[in-house]
Structure prediction request, 336 residues.
Amino acid sequence: MRRYGKHTDEDDIRSRPNRKGNRPRTNIRPKHEDAAEGMVLTVDRGRLTCLVDGRTVLAMKARELGRKAAVVGDRVAIVGDLSGQKDTLARIVRIEGRTSLLRRTADDDDPYERVVVANADQLAIVTALADPEPRPRLIDRCLVAAYDGGLDPLLVLTKSDLAPPDKLLELYGDLDIPYVVTSREELESGAAADRVREQLAGKITAFVGHSGVGKTTLVNALVPEDRRRLTGRVNAVTGRGRHTTTSALALPLAGADGWVVDTPGVRSFGLAHIDPSRVIHAFPDLEPGTENCPRACSHDEPDCALDQWVAEGHADPARLYSLRRLLATRERTEGD
Prediction:
């Protein structure tokens, strides 16, 4: 049976009233073209401290972002109260494209990927030469994560007064990684920070290292004390305590244009998320030789074309050895 006549208008159509009185849902979202640009400095249980026009602003993630999470180093679009005053809260409505992404898992069997920092230019791997003893496998894993994520690695070797750096540097010499060697006296006097700062100027640098290597002492010397106190006050607004080493924190580099991202100490660096095919991009002298490799080549098998490429003199055999050592690090534990 036809409910309405042939010629109907709006008055003929009956509509069910909206009992809740709210507007109907729509898939059309605002573009927020007037949103301010900001950088995420730290994340504390759903509250994000961001830098906006020189002010630290506390913000939360907008619902329309869904499960997409903002991390330290992200460039974001922010709306709402951007005054940075106490008890104010802004809203992050967009996460801009990332240039790099440092990730890790708890171990190689853990499917849960943890994003450490976004948009960093380099990864400073802080390692003591003694007390505690250096862990080359942990360094290898950090290098793989850096190459996979698009970061340039930097080795920072501490406590050279207890052991010489030659043996460890020889292990990584073929990778052409920049490095800084410091002693405990230089670390305590601030001289170490001055030399490290030269490698950080104009860059966003994430620091990683396990307990006791001197990472925290070095980071404290690189960052102005007044900015550290300021960040602590902002986080206290949430009522959840000040920043500790349980979360990453981006801080301005003292005496130079750049940023230091202090990360929690690591006991392990899982690589379950790593695609081995991306690590080869960090070896431009070897990458052309992979054109004749079989499909899904691991670059460490009998049919790998890199062996012939190196045998023909296109690259140094030591570089191929270094590549395969890094690729094999997923198969070894960090204590091996």
In short: Confidence is low (pLDDT under 50) at residues 226-245. The CA atoms of residues 45 and 119 lie 21 Å apart.
